[in-house]
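REQUEST ID: PR-0412
SUBMITTED BY: lab tech R.K.
PRIORITY: routine
TASK: structure prediction, single protein chain
INPUT:
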Amino acid sequence: MEKRELTCIVCPNGCHLVVEVEGKEIVNISGYECKRGLKYAEDEIIMPKRTLTTTVKAEGGHLPVVSVRTKEPIPKGLLNKAVYELSRITVKPPINVGDVIVKNILSTGVDVIATRALYSK
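STATUS: complete
OUTPUT:
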């Protein structure tokens, strides 16, 4: 049996989690103070996810790039592919905070949204 130690990042408590894994199966999770910590530990062991934050190129705007992020976390293993897909995109103004830049990136069901506005020059 393998023990993996994690620090929960869901809330400010930063619970110290200990996950006992046998093969590919979770045997026990301890150290969490809420159900969100339990879910975080399960997800982190079974399929880790991360929120992607990056930029996309902009044309004709007051900035050369626009900052974006995934609306929800996506599988960690898809981060590089998602960055590559976003590197091929160029947006034009107007872009408002929260606008969907890419719908359903890599068929994950997660949209990529703007986190900064882009106005015409």
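NOTES: The chain has two helices and ten strands.
REVIEWED BY: pending
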